[in-house]
Amino acid sequence: MMKKLALVAVAVMASAGVQAADIEGYVSYDNNHTGEGRTSLDGAGITWAGVAAGFENGVAVAVDYGYSDEKADYDELAITVEYGFNAGDFAMAAAYTRLEMFEDNEDDNEFAFGVAYEGCDLLVPSLDAVYSTEAEGSFVELGLTAPYQINEQLALEAFVVAGFDFGYATEDNDGYNHTSVGAAASYAINDNLAFNLGYAYHIAGSDIDKEMEAEGLSADNESVVTVGLSFAL
């Protein structure tokens, strides 16, 4: 739902006297482009690349670009400005994202908010919500993540997420949308480079079932494997 700053923008801010930024980036491939529990490109995969800069004052700016030509030309550019802060054991963030889908000649503006409780090392509950001006609807996800640091190089996590649609994914149906279960692993190759692998299985809920029934189809569960590299400067 929320996805990361062009290097030129980082340089401009640094030259303007803004505090130094932490810069991170990634390249990855999803074998099935999914969103809100649905396959978005008829099962086709998508390649992503992104870069983000985070500042000590809690502000982060990010640029993500995804492209696929496996079944049809599709691309998506997301430019995000986010502000994050901590309140006790709670980590919170608010963000604005400008979306441009050039191949489809579409665009959108999204406003998002997220909160996670980090007072327990074993389980991290979270809530994320996004509002789309194009759809004039919102989408809410309740999540539970179990992170585990195997050693200094290898980190694992398992997660379960329940999604609820309020006019964001469909106009006619609201309510329970899907449940996602999955796991992710990150292996630090060195201090600046990591290999990432993830798997998610999306189980269709009543919102997707009703959408498919209206089209004379049956809802399918979706799975996605993600592989990529991330770097930090």
Task: Give the N-terminus to C-terminus distance in angstroms.
Answer: 26 Å
CATH class: Mainly Beta
Helix content: under 10%
Overall pLDDT: 90
Structural class comes to mainly beta
Side-by-side strand order of the widest sheet: 1-4-5-6-7-8-9-10-11-12-13-14
Radius of gyration: 18 Å
Return the CATH topology. Answer: Porin
Number of domains: 1
Which architecture name does CATH use? Beta Barrel
How many helices? The count is 2
Helix/strand order, N-terminal first: HEEEEEEEEEEEEEHE
Please give the largest β-sheet.
Answer: 12 strands, antiparallel, barrel
Low-pLDDT runs: 1-19
Shape: globular
Supply the CATH superfamily name: monomeric porin ompg
Strand content: over 45%
Number of strands: 14
